[in-house]
Amino acid sequence: MIYYSPCAHYRLVASIDLSDIRWGTSVIPRFAGTFDGNEMTISHLTINGAGYLGLFGRLESGAQVKDIGVLDVNISSSDFYVGALAGSNGGNVTSCYSTGAVMGYRAVVGLLGYNGGAVSHCYSSADVGRTEPSRIVDSRLGHGGLVGCNIGDVTHSFSTGSVIGASTVGGLAGSNDGSIIMSYSTGMVRGESSIGGLVGNNSQLVQGCYSTGAVNGESGVGGLVGSNISSYIFREGMGKGIVTQSFWDIDISGQTTSAGGAGKTTDEMQTASTFLDAGWDFVDETANGTEDIWWIDEGQDYPHLCWEEIEQ
Q1: What is d(CA 188, CA 241) in angstroms, rounded to the nearest whole number?
Q2: Spatial separation of the C-alpha atoms in residues 64 and 179, rounded to whole Å
Q3: Is the entire prediction scored with pTM above 0.90?
């Protein structure tokens, strides 16, 4: 049993290995305090249970979690809202990452099952899969590499793991009813309907993003975005989702169409001018800004976020 105060403040001083421990629910069911991982890791988290599974079950409004790696997770759920870090997030998650495997039915992802808060400078290489065959589900509750259902803000983040689901499946997010900005995904995506290299269903904003993974599905399939739909949340002036300054690799994805974004060849995706011409802020240029958000090994790789360590 883990004893904790849901509104207290914690800071790890050493990494934790949870090998040979099995959980039937989240390690910390609800949390509204501050958790500073101090750049440490929690490894071999193993959970087999129902809904709201992860290191945290629910990060409530006001929660802050930062600088923690959740490594080699093995999480399997028969229900919804499942992620290596948290089943749902209503707070702020910064500089966190995950590896391993996450399996579940709805809103299943590498990091956060549901995001209604803010996520920045995070990544996941966890592989995501489904535990049950296709059934009628809420089209917002899909599978994604980083987040399942996003109604908050995701910025400066990425995912690299494979994602397999039924409907509403995306390399970074299953569904987006918030904003996804300056982020990318590279993993393979496979499902049945509303399948996208970055986002399965988009009803709000995708800006300055890209995807490169193979994309396979039966209907509503797109290299970057599977389907652009009307928002579930009323926001004045918003109709269907908006995708701007964003790209996908038509060679690797196997898809020449998308509900948003511009398809480019692999060579074009590894050329700086493709992104500079769209207003992306790169190192050593000032025309598009001075924040130095992206860098690229031109001709050898795709753009990377400047906060990434070279070895990642």
Answers
A1: 23
A2: 19
A3: yes
Contacts of 7 (CB under 8 A, 6+ apart): 32, 33
Q: Is the alpha carbon torsion for 212, 174, 128, 255 positive or negative?
A: negative
DSSP structure string for 65-119:
EEEEEEEEEEEEESSEEE-SSEEEESSEEEEEEEEEEEEESEEEESSEEEESSEE
Residue 253 DSSP SS3: helix
Go through the domains of the chain in sequence order and give each one's CATH number.
26-269 (2.160.20.110)
Residue 2 and residue 26 in contact, taking contact as beta carbons nearer than 8 Å: no
Q: 3-state DSSP call for residue 62?
A: coil
For residue 207 the two structure tokens come to 């800006």
How does pLDDT run across 234-267, given as a tens digit for each residue? Answer: 444 455 789 999 999 999 999 999 999 999 999 9
Hey, what are 239's tokens? 């109709």
| pLDDT of 91 strictly over 90 | yes
CA torsion sign for 271, 186, 100, 147 is positive
Say if strands 173-176 and 199-202 run parallel, antiparallel, or are unpaired.
Answer: parallel
What gap in Å lies between CA 302 and CA 36, rounded to an integer? 31
Is residue 180 within 8 Å of residue 236, measured between CB atoms? no
CB 148 within 8 A of CB 141: yes
Residues 119 and 157: their CA atoms lie apart, in Å, by 8
252 secondary structure, DSSP code: H
Kindly indicate the confidence band of residue 40, based on its pLDDT and cuts at 50, 70 and 90.
Answer: very high
- Are 195 and 166 in contact, with CB atoms under 8 Å apart? no
In contact, 197 and 255? CB cutoff 8 Å = yes
The burial of 112, by beta-carbon neighbours within 10 Å (0-12 exposed, 13-18 middle, 19 or more buried), is given as buried
If we measure between CA atoms, which residue out of 6, 31, 40, 304 comes closest to residue 156? 304
